[in-house]
Amino acid sequence: MEEKKVINFLLNIFNMIDEDEEKKYISEITVLTIKSLMPSKKVVGTKVDYKRFHEEMRLWYYYRNGENPSILNSIELSDTDIYLNGIDYSLYIRLAPIVFSNSQWEIIKNEVLKNILYTTGNIKMILEGVLLSKILFLTANNSEDIVLELKDEIISFSQVDFLDRYSRFFRVPPDEYYKKFAIDFERNRIEIINLLNGISSNSFNILEEALLVIKENTIEDKFHIFSKGLYFMKNNIYIDSKESLKFQQDLCHYIWSLNKGRIDPKLLSIEKYYLPDIFSFNEGEEFFHSLLNRCKVLKKEKISGKMKVYISTKSGIYIFKK
What does the pLDDT look like over 36-61, one tens digit per residue? Predict the structure, then answer.
């Protein structure tokens, strides 16, 4: 896989999101996913460090721009129904770093499924997330018959095997699903098979758009940012990024370096977490935070009973609110 594939997908998406306040949380969740990636010590591949991912999510709660019920719910898992049925819109983009930082599909599939299940047990999102991830993997590696490989993937995707291997990663037991899990799983799996055979779907819109990009090399303004990013990657199109996205550009190079096995896991490992209360420091104070590294309080203000703290870090300025 070439580095430009990562850039043409992710950096173009960061560009598209940058001006949309309501969607900025998608970039934020994608970045914290990248920061949680860890080269495996057992296999040649990259996995998500869920201790770090969990702490990054808890920190994100205070600096988030825009939000999504499924993501917010996943932090403390307060609502079973949201977990099992909610739609996590960050998923379509945050899975990309997992795909791009690995070279073997089985490792990608395993990590993608675990990451989906962290925020949602929604069957449609599980199946669509796996198929979209495979589209990214195959496109990044210049595969020719992508639709055929997708058919093989979904036909062999057994719900019995899936539950056997991944039930422990569900944060709400599948038997609490409001319908019979197995029946709903099969119904959605068959709908995807039909979609791959050319029958339009009302349930898997983003997958349908992605297939149009793959088969017809077409793009429309109404398409989801995933589909647009896929089109840019497939056609080697790069939109010049803003200077404000220099950090994200560096992250794209970092993902590619992970894919090539050039990052020593010892450099990323956090042996002991130091997570001080961001709101406890005064203006001008400097401190260390395991997730933010060296920090300095630029400004602290209280407006209408709410506290805002402006923190300068190596990756930029964060505004924490509570």
Answer: 999 987 778 999 999 999 999 999 99
Collapsing DSSP states into helix, strand and coil, what is residue 282? Answer: coil
Per-residue pLDDT reduced to its tens digit, 260-313: 988 888 888 898 999 999 999 999 999 999 999 999 999 999 988 899 999 999
- Comparing CA positions, the residue from 273, 252, 293 lying closest to residue 96 is 252
Q: Which H or E element spans position 167?
A: none
Rounded to whole angstroms, how far apart are CA atoms 114 and 95? 11
Model confidence, pTM: 0.95
Helix or strand (DSSP H, E) at 287: strand 286-289
Delimiting residues of CATH 1.10.4080 domain(s) in the chain: 3-268
Confidence of residue 195 (pLDDT cuts 50, 70, 90): very high
**Distance between CA atoms of residues 87 and 199, nearest Å:** 23
Query: Judging by DSSP bridges, how do beta strands 306-313 and 46-48 pair with one another?
Result: unpaired
What 3 state SS string does 187-233 have? Answer: HHHHHHHHHHCCCCCCCCHHHHHHHHHHHHCCCCCCCCHHHHHHHHH
Count of beta carbons in the 10 Å neighbourhood of residue 198: 9
State the Cα–Cα distance between residues 17 and 301, nearest whole angstrom: 28
Fold of 3-268: ADP-ribosylglycohydrolase fold (1.10.4080)
Partner residues linked to 289 by β-bridges: 293
